[in-house]
Amino acid sequence: MNQFIQQTPLTNLFYVFLFFLFLILVKWFNRSETNKCRPPPSPSKLPIIGNLHQIHGFPHHAFKSLAQKHGPLMLLHFGSKPTLVVSSAEIAFEVMKTNDHVFSSRPELQFAKRLFYNKDMAFAAYGEYWRQSRKVCVLQLLNPKKVQSFGFVREEEVTLMLDKIKVSTSAVNLSEMFIALSIDVVCRVAFGKKYNEGELGQKFRGILKECLYLIGISNIADLIPSLAWVNYLNGLNARVENNFRDIDSFMNQVVEEHIEKKRRLGGHDGSGDNEEEDFVDVMLGIENGDKDHSISWDRVNTKAIILDMFVAGTDTSSVVLEWAMSELIRHPDVMAEVQKEVRDIARGKLTLNETDINEMHYLKSVIKETLRLHPPLPLSVPRETLQKVQIQGYDIPDKTLVMINVFEIGRDPKLWDEPEKFWPKRFLNGASVSIDFKGQDFQFIPFGAGRRGCPGMVFAISIIELALANILNRFDWALPEGMNCKDLDMEEEFGITVHRKNDLVLIAKPHYS
């Protein structure tokens, strides 16, 4: 026994020595593995904030400047978040095509998570719920047949916009006209009626504007979680909670109106035609198991997906229309040429329908060129890697944020002749004639590509084409007296989309007496 007691301290010391030797070996092994890792080029960073101090002005412009120094694949650090920035079509192809599955998730964004019930599709992490919700959107809400069935809504609302412009006695604020058009179309398609008049209409627009603002700003809690308390001091958390309550109250009202209407009609939707059901009708059908028994759905899912469709549908169309008219005013020769095409096809018709648009190839090129120079989202909605992956020989860890600089790719001189020039004819002849925005040509991805491509692209383009063709057909446009076309400012305002900082205000002169 005495011998055992005497040997125990030596034995324990030996075990302690082995333990520390093990820790040293593990640390050495991990360091060796780290040294083997080849991260993408990265500018030097500061403690805590990372590279945030290098993002001056609008992020898509700042990323362009940094890419000129560090290359088209950069690793930046925004607080604690490693972020991969892609600025070339070749690398975008690797991310959104070759390795699409690895890059198909989303980071957790606190404000979006709260405002969209943590149940929407656009901000959902990759997984079974995202697959189910996208299936609902693509097959039930935004399939080509469904989008086409609402053509009468688009045509009626465009006609109402034309009437408002016609009776205007002063300069026309086209920025306001376009956002009102987008909201009214999406309201009728999603909710079955417009919410544009009186106190309720004003409140609804205020709720939507606040929601768009809150999901468009940078949230310090997403970048540096230890500083999340700052949002209690600056009032942002309170604003998010207030906006969520307003959104939820409005969405509950809309859903209850639909349920009550169906109850009054004895269980029928009242449309008499399945194609004319609005989005809420469709979602309630899924919720009740009438539409697709393979999908598990509840009321929160319904509200989240409808809100997704509404927010995405209103901002995109109006922003593209605003930039298209801005570029046409600055380029009178292009304006004259596209108006000639539209009016030749119209042959005196005051209002064009969607069938007429099919023949307007130059008009479609004007829209393409607008999307190239002014993508609604100049930076893709952030993705997040699901696992480690190699891109261009560089090692990308899992849980890395990924942003595609769509703005920079659309102006890459290696891909486009005279990339800063507004030149729609590039899409009618030459090397760019076959390029489209549907996610197959990675030098032109205003609606994204791959699994996370925008499912509402066809819906948005249908509004843009019809509205632009009709205002170009019905009216001649000019700047207010004393202004030259080159004087029109093109300053941007950054948010969830990038729109004009100052509203586009023009003089409309009826073309047909």
TrEMBL record:
The keyword Transmembrane is annotated on this UniProt entry: yes
Cofactor(s) demanded: heme
Positions of heme binding: C454
UniProt KW keywords: Heme, Iron, Membrane, Metal-binding, Monooxygenase, Oxidoreductase, Transmembrane, Transmembrane helix
Residue runs in coiled coils: none
GO biological processes: secondary metabolite biosynthetic process
Cross-referenced Gene3D superfamilies: Cytochrome P450
Keyword S-adenosyl-L-methionine: no
PROSITE patterns: CYTOCHROME_P450 (PS00086)
Spans through the membrane: 12-29
GO molecular function terms noted in the UniProt entry: heme binding; iron ion binding; monooxygenase activity; oxidoreductase activity, acting on paired donors, with incorporation or reduction of molecular oxygen
Domain of life assignment: Eukaryota
Entries under Pfam families matching the protein: p450
Signal peptide: none
Family to which the UniProt record says this protein belongs: Belongs to the cytochrome P450 family.
Protein name: Cytochrome p450
